[in-house]
Amino acid sequence: MPANSPTLLRQALTSSSRLRILIFLFIALLLLYILFPYSSPLSPTTSVSSYSSSSLSTTATSSPSHLLFGIAASTHTWPRRREYLRAWWRPGITRGIVFLDSIPPFSPDNDRDVPPFRISADTSRLPYSFKGGQRSAIRVARIAKELFDAFDGKIAYGDVRWIVLGDDDTVFFLENLAGTLAKYDWEQWYYVGSFSESAEQNAKHSFDMAFGGGGFAISYPLAKVLSKVMDSCLLRYGHLFGSDARVFACLAELGVGLTREPGFHQVDLRGDLFGLLSAHPLSPLISLHHLDSVDPLFPAKNHSEALRHLLKAVNIDPERILQQTVCYDHKELRTISVSWGFAVQVFEGNELLNDLLASQRTFRPWKRGRSATSAIYMFDTREFPKDPCKRPAIFFLESLYSSLSRTESNYSRQTSGNCLGSSVSTKRLQQITVSSEKSHLEIGKALRRHCCDVIDSSHEAVMNVKIRKCKDDELIAMHP
Ligand SMILES: *[C@@H]1O[C@H](CO)[C@@H](O)[C@H](O)[C@H]1NC(C)=O
Ligand SMILES: *[C@@H]1O[C@H](CO)[C@@H](O)[C@H](O)[C@H]1NC(C)=O
Question: Which residues span the membrane (predicted)?
């Protein structure tokens, strides 16, 4: 064809103007990206990982504002336990209702730091026949329905993507909850939660059920159907013990099974949670429950002080909270295990990573009075030595600092229990400073544990640890 053919010319013209339009669009997007990094259409997932309030915009793929909470409480427990809600609730961002069993004697103060409450509907016509159980299980199961009914038709489609149910003593870690749920398509039917830590409790109730105290999430379209059929299910399952078992049974009849996420914690444990919290699974921490029934999370603090202390770290780098990173001090032949935002352990000698991933049994079974099965847990455990000299040196979170992209956290030595270790250098160690980049939950990406280095310190009482991404073929071992 001749070069001056009009068709060719036209094609050349259109493709060059197309190119110009493309270049223009590219520059416009780049400008948008630079000006509004958090709500950028190019990286919608980054917003989940950031704690800044700009990340909580409704345009993000998932944020705490897309969650609707139904909190099970009673007039008896609410005055005390609302301190837990106050610790994690975000007024103006999180939405939900606290369901009470009766009109409270206290006046409905305009407490904006906790969700509004309402009185659950009467359930006396529904059957309950579990011997020794409590009828309130029906009321609490019905929260799934009453919560949905209260909001349906009043919110725009897509504004609420999940309903989340929990108890008044469930503490949710909002960024991690929203970030984890964002892995799943909320427009499909999903039921997300986890089982109990206690094998006995699971054997008794179900291995396939989301335990209610750890909290669980139901995608909005599934919640819609559930709210329609709930009362029919409640008629058939009067013989079950709990509220969570009723919801589970009804979802099973709808053909839906549990999607298990290990970050939900029912905490059917007692005593000291140190072993559990210092060896958290690689998944982000989503919830903790039963904090009244265990020791305060930090020594020398009461329950609410200790929770607020942990939340200081959560607020700085939510995804990294409790994430376990292990590195080796080659000079002193020591093994360091960091549970970020909570504690650091220093072991003398070489501990294999595989051993450190098991939880030290600092806690006790949920059921008092031993049966053969009560001390079987749903995760790997190992002994926590009775002899303090055989234990690692333990350092608890003291203070934190964060800049835009980095964090520094200091951990100080636990002084009670007076064995200071056998080596002189461990005896002198008083403080550990851990520095790290802020983590970013990349939704849908496989999780990989981070590595760390022990950095030379100018002071013998201080150890510096730097957390970083592992190199491609790096192994977490003293002598790889
Ligand atoms: C916990 O400690 C804080 C600060 O010392 C105090 O204000 C609060 O009343 C204490 N809470 C309980 C339940 O003792
Ligand atoms: C941690 O400790 C180091 C050394 O004592 C100190 O310089 C630093 O300011 C501390 N950081 C925080 C966040 O407290």
Answer: 21-39
Ligand (nearest to CA of 83): 1
Confidence of residue 58 (pLDDT cuts 50, 70, 90): very low
Q: Check whether residue 362 and residue 395 sit in a common domain.
A: yes
Atom from ligand 2 closest to the CA of residue 398: 14
Q: How many domains does the chain have?
A: 3
Residues 231 and 357 both lie in one domain = no
Asked, for residue 473, whether it belongs to a domain, the answer is: no
What would the pLDDT profile of 446-461 be if each residue is shown by its tens digit? 999 999 999 988 899 9
Which residue bears the tokens 């599934």?
A: 222
Rounded CA separation 208/181 (Å)? 19
| 52 domain residue, yes or no | no
- Residues in contact with 336: Cβ distance below 8 Å, sequence separation at least 6, in sequence order: 326, 327, 328, 329, 344, 345, 346, 347, 432, 452, 454, 463, 465
CATH number of the domain at 135, please.
3.90.550.50
What is the whole-number distance in angstroms between the Cα of residue 436 and the centre of ligand 2?
Answer: 14
Q: For residues 37 and 130, state if they share a domain.
A: no
Tens-place pLDDT, residues 214-255: 999 999 999 999 999 999 999 999 999 999 999 999 999 999
Query: What's the gap in Å between 304 CA and the centre of ligand 1?
Result: 7
CB-ligand 2 contact for 410 (6 Å cutoff): yes
Whether 18 shows a pLDDT value over 70: the answer reads: no
Global confidence as pTM:
0.87
CA angle 20, 21, 25 (to 5 degrees): 120
Q: Is 128 exposed, middle or buried (0-12, 13-18, 19+ CB in 10 A)?
A: buried
Same domain, 70 and 217: yes
Which range of residues forms the domain containing residue 406?
317-468
Same domain, 28 and 116: no
Q: Is residue 297 part of a domain?
A: no
Q: How far is the CA of 433 from the centre of ligand 2 (A)?
A: 7
How many Å lie between the centroid of ligand 1 and the Cα of residue 303?
Answer: 8
